[in-house]
Amino acid sequence: MNLILTPLGALGRQTLNMLAGIGRFTVFVLQTISHFFRPPFYVGEFFNAILVIGYFSLPVVGLTALFTGGALALQIYAGGARFNAEAVVPQIVAIGMVRELGPVMVGLMIAARVTSSVAAEIATMRVTEQIDALVTLSTNPMKYLTAPRVLAALIVVPILVGIGDIIGIAGGFIVGVQTLGFNPATYLRNTADFLEAADIISSLIKGAAFGGIAALMGCYYGMNSGRGAQGVGKATKSSVEAAAVLILAANFGLTALLFSA
Amino acid sequence: MIQLNDVHKAFGNNQVLRGMTLNVPKGESMVIIGGSGTGKSVALKCVLGLVTPDSGQIIVDDQDVTEADRDAFLARFGMLFQGAALFDSLPVWQNVAFRLLRGKLKRPKAEAREIAIDKLRRVGLKSDVADRFPAELSGGMQKRVGLARAIAADPEIIFFDEPTTGLDPIMAGVINDLIREIVVEMGATAMTITHDMTSVRSIADRVAMLHDGVIQWTGTVAEMDQTDDPYVQQFIHGKAEGPIEAVR
User: Fold this and answer.
1) A7 CB near a chain B CB, below 8 Å?
2) What percent of chain B has pLDDT over 70?
3) CA distance A200 to A198
């Protein structure tokens, strides 16, 4: 009998822990959103987060998009050559970057760069009692640390995605013109003609969703960090893992939702 | 002024407080002593609402802390944390003036900076420290900045969590003297937790010994030296033999 009950008990405990975790995270998200609308507002923290998440992420986002766009052009050219469709490079690079690779690559870069640093910073604040100090100084840590970062990410990551899309297309353009022999004017005209407003809007929506996920994961795992250096390390690792998986899952969900028609 | 009545707190299976009862009258400096892991910090955090007790009652000025307006309640407190808990991302003066730069006590930036520098001077730090970051300061200087932050808004009640831990004996003496001077000068009620018997003798009006989750003994410093209580005797003389197990 124990042979059946022991694994069932373990499965039950795991399920309960998972449901409790989902519940805690849901409460965390709702609390964060509620702080967007309830004063006091920490404007300085918000603008600092804009700078850290947005401006300082530009180099890594730009380089990632540039190389991705270039590689995409080479792949499409090589693949298209198998059925004499080399000419579709500008269109596919544009649609591939804007609809899919731009938001996903930027989302993953933000998860790597921002989620990890937010989680490590807040977790360190947790283990060094800085979060407790905030409370004793009549400052709500959710309002001071979480709300400005999440709001900043929701605003600034779509902008990063837009910039990433443009640089990615530029990467494809450089490779297309310099290496694959495309006419520059034709390449640009094909790109512009093929892209639709819905593609760009969906890209920005994905950017906002991925930015929100990345910041929320960093804050959530940081706030719930365990003790000591190990606790900080675990919080950082878990936050990046969770953010990356959720970004890819959300990308699938949003793609299905936005392009199902 | 501060009353803890039969406060219990457990973390999982670890029962930390098992019915702690303690009264701290207004204007008194109470020092809680006890071994590591006996729940001294938890007791302070229960009063501040950082940890919620499982049962029991905590009353500050005839009001149950769970029923008090949280912001107004915390505005009456200042706390010096064991590791100072300074905000790494802010310069020293903004750490000290943190409460004066936001919320209900918000003042103009220049005035808040002026107050911060004044409080830094009060704890023996020069104004050139104001624009440095916490990571650029020694442990003793960080403690002093933490002390300046604790007193920046002239609180009625100040908590000190292991104020001399990690400091050399001379710096520990400086911090002890500062705490005593500030508490007397401000007329504040103080609760300090420490293992350091030099601190106890410098800071305390009264001493409470916490062991096994309850207050085993309370009295003045003079009474502490004369008591026959075996727990107190073992603790203040640092004996391995006695009713307190050396390995906990």
Assistant:
1) no
2) 99
3) 5
Cβ contacts of A137 on chain B, cutoff 8 Å: 74, 98-99, 149
Nearest CA in chain A to B45: A132
- Does A90 reside within a domain? yes
- B65/B67 Cα distance (integer angstroms): 5
pLDDT tens-digit series, residues A81-108: 888 888 889 999 999 999 999 999 999 9
Residue at token pair 């100084």: A137
B85 and A42 within 8 Å at the Cβ level: the answer is: no
Q: What's CA A100's distance to the chain center, in Å?
A: 13
Return all residues near B245 (Cβ < 8 A) that are at least 6 apart.
none
How many Å lie between the alpha carbon of B192 and the closest alpha carbon of chain A?
Answer: 16
The whole-angstrom separation of Cα A158 and Cα A32 is: 20
Assess B49–A contact: CB distance below 8 Å, yes or no: yes
Report the domain count for chain A.
1
Domains contained in chain B, CATH given: 1-76+156-163+187-248 (3.40.50.300)
pLDDT in tens, B231-242: 888 888 888 887
Backbone angles phi, psi at A13, to 5 degrees: -65, -45
Q: Is the pLDDT of residue B247 over 60?
A: no
Here the tokens at position A244 are 């990356």
Classify burial at A238, counting beta carbons within 10 Å of its beta carbon; exposed 0-12, middle 13-18, buried 19 or more. middle
Q: pTM for the complete prediction?
A: 0.87
Contact B85 A128 (CB under 8 A): yes
- Cβ separation of A132 and B82 shorter than 8 Å? no
- Give the mean model confidence (pLDDT) for residues B182-197: 89
> How far, in Å, CA of B85 to CA of B104, rounded?
22
Q: Where are the beta strands (DSSP E) in chain A?
A: none
The percentage of residues in chain A with a pLDDT greater than 70, rounded to a whole number, is 99
- Taking the Cβ of residue B85 and every Cβ of chain A, the question of whether any pair is shorter than 8 Å is answered with yes
Place of tokens 């520059």: A184
Residue A40 resides in a domain: no
Chain A residues inside the 8 Å CB shell of B102: 40, 42, 139
Q: Alpha-carbon distance B60 to B66, whole Å?
A: 10
In sequence order, the β-bridge partners of residue B2 are B24, B60
**Which structural domain range is residue A114 located in?**
47-258
B169 pLDDT tier (thresholds 50, 70, 90): confident
For residue B6, what are its two tokens?
């039969």
Interface contact A75, partner B, CB < 8 A: no
Helix, strand or coil for residue A185? helix
Selection from B2, B20, B176 nearest residue B73 by Cα: B2
Residue with tokens 């899309």: A165
Mean pLDDT of A124-149: 94
Starting from the edge strand earliest in sequence, which strands make up the sheet with B206-211, in order?
B77-80, B157-161, B189-194, B29-33, B206-211, B214-220
Tens digit of each residue's pLDDT (9 = 90 or more) over B85-122 = 999 999 999 999 999 998 778 889 999 999 999 999 88
